[in-house]
Design a protein that fits this description.
The protein is α/β, with parallel strands linked by helices. The chain has 9 helices and 9 strands. The chain has a single domain, classed as NAD(P)-binding Rossmann-like Domain (Rossmann fold). Bound molecules: nicotinamide-adenine-dinucleotide.
Length: 264
């Protein structure tokens, strides 16, 4: 997309954290902003916050795992602002321990929200975005845990790997169309998810988390840059994560070199 001003954005899970950071940044870029969430209280306070920037705000209580509810939301967006230009599939839930320690219900819930939620968003909104033909973009909020399997994050991490994969295939599908794709892969962002995590770890670890955490509005600006430049991968910090990604790539290349040495 070459410009955001006057265009319409739809952000799932947009009432707090990264979603609200993106919504705030989009509002400052003069976009019409639609946020959805499953918590009415959070939607109300997010709306008050966004209305300090723009009057062009719509909040909707929509569970992104509910395809019919998303389809109704799409009609409300069309009635209020016209065609949609920017879809941010952002709603997500945490949940993961070691594979055998994670209850099946948690596995299913993380995949339902973190993978099927974005899949639903694409299914509902993409046909209209292709049909109206104006510049458009889809941003899927995955995670650095969908790029690199660190720690014990079972359900959560695998759902984010699946979302990175979905985004890569979607990018292939949409090459040479009016719709760009980005996959957002944050590591640690200062949001309610991270605040809750800090209550469950030691003080030292909480301090380390604080030192790594990026502000949600910084992520909003990183996303805007990626949309305008049509960049696919969006990483939010390049400190710890750079080394982790290098190690993963080196591991894979070393395996390939062992199995298929270059001299053959
Ligand atoms: N905070 C981080 O460090 C971090 C790192 C990597 C990825 N992420 C991802 O960023 C996204 C946003 O996370 P956040 O940290 O801002 O968390 P958050 O909890 O502040 O925001 C997530 C929002 O999604 C909403 N939500 C949950 N299930 C939903 C559903 N079924 N339908 C609609 N809304 C729903 C929640 O009510 C909440 O408001 C998530 O996908 C998360 O996995 C966050």
């Amino acid at each position: 997309m070459e410009t955001l001003a006057g265009k319409t954005a739809f952000i799932t899970g947009g009432s707090t954290g990264i979603g609200l950071g993106m919504a705030t940044t989009f509002a400052r870029h003069d976009m019409n902003v639609v946020i959805t969430d499953i918590r009415d209280d959070a939607l109300t306070s997010a709306e008050q916050h966004l209305r300090q920037i723009t009057e062009r705000v719509l909040t909707l209580n929509v569970d992104s795992t509910d395809l019919d509810a998303l389809a109704s939301a799409a009609k409300a967006v069309e009635r209020t602002f016209g065609p949609l230009h920017l879809l941010c599939n952002n709603a997500g839930v945490t949940g993961g321990a070691k594979v055998l320690d994670t209850p099946e219900e948690r596995w299913r819930m993380t995949h339902e929200v973190n993978f099927w939620g974005p899949h639903n968003g694409i299914k509902v909104f993409l046909p209209g975005m292709l049909e109206h033909g104006e510049d458009a973009h889809i941003v899927n909020t995955a995670s650095f845990s969908g790029i690199h399997g660190h720690g014990h994050q079972s359900g959560y991490g695998t759902s984010k790997f699946a979302l990175v994969g979905l985004s890569e295939f979607l990018r292939n599908d949409l090459a040479d169309t009016n719709v760009g794709v980005s996959v957002l892969c944050p590591h640690v962002v200062d949001t309610p998810i991270i605040k809750a995590l800090k209550t469950r770890v030691s003080e030292n670890v909480a301090q380390m988390i604080d030192a790594m955490a990026v502000a949600a509005e910084t992520v909003g600006s990183q996303v805007v840059r990626a949309i305008l430049a049509n960049e696919f991968y969006v990483f939010c910090d390049g400190t710890q994560t750079r080394k982790m990604l290098e190690d993963r790539c080196q591991d894979m290349m070393a395996a390939m070199d062992r199995q298929f040495p270059k001299s053959q």
